[in-house]
Design a protein that fits this description.
It is built from 9 helices and 7 strands, in the order ααβαβαβαβββαβααα. The chain has 219 residues and is α/β, with parallel strands linked by helices. It has 2 domains: 64 residues, no CATH class; 155 residues, Alpha/beta knot.
């Protein structure tokens, strides 16, 4: 089913106010910013990372190795607005991202390159390691560059959820400034995301769309 049909079928059900909010959020998503969590071990930290990414406007997150562990008490259901994917290992994850034109950045405390030095216009995937061991040696090897969050206190590292939040907030702000708009999706890509959001927001959306007959002369 094409996006135009889905949007036309579901917008009257949503109402103007709700549809406008979904449209605004979709238009503010950043598809050129991906977060990869490697070997996530703490459901609360994982949930907090997901919630931060959704709030900032990230569209896609990936989890490498093991099951996707999220605390529902933390996420409050926000994960339904993200494209969440699981990769069995870091090699397959990196290969997929590089094939799509992403540069891969390993977040490593003390790295020589600060986060704000990278090109905000280039599609960027940020690798974040777990709370105990950080990123694996293989993840660091596959990265195009190691970056760090400059810290100015005695504490020179932060946990997974905080590192994720600081990284995505900083890079998203710089990317939006470089783009000159709130999101990086346009045209058919943006309409497809709007249609997905309409469907996720309405219980029984598929049945409504299947029954919908466009007004004569529409389109």
């Amino acid at each position: 089913m094409d996006s135009a049909h889905i949007l036309a079928a579901l917008r009257p059900v949503l109402g103007d106010e709700r549809a406008a909010k979904l449209d605004r959020v979709a238009a503010s998503r950043l598809s050129g910013l991906v977060v990869v969590l490697e070997h996530l071990s703490d459901p609360h930290n994982g949930g907090a990372a997901v919630r931060s990414c959704e709030a900032v406007g990230v569209l896609e997150m990936r989890v490498v190795g093991g099951p996707l562990k999220l605390s529902e008490r933390v996420t409050q259901g926000c994960e339904k607005w993200l494209d969440l994917a699981r990769d069995p290992d870091i090699d397959s994850c990196a290969a997929s991202l590089k094939a799509r034109g992403f540069r891969i950045y390993a977040t490593v405390p003390g790295a020589k390159t600060p986060l704000e030095a990278i090109d905000p216009m280039a599609p960027a995937a940020f690798l974040v390691g777990n709370e105990h061991d950080g990123l694996t040696a293989r993840a660091r090897e596959l990265a195009d560059c190691e970056i760090t969050l400059p810290l100015y206190g005695f504490s020179q590292s932060v946990n997974l959820s905080v590192a994720t939040a600081l990284t995505v907030y900083t890079h998203a702000r710089r990317r939006r400034e470089a783009l000159g708009r709130s999101g990086d999706l346009e045209g058919a890509e943006l309409d497809r995301l709007r249609a997905r959001y309409y469907q996720r927001d309405i219980r029984g959306a598929d049945a409504i769309v299947a029954r919908f007959v466009p007004p004569e002369g529409a389109g």
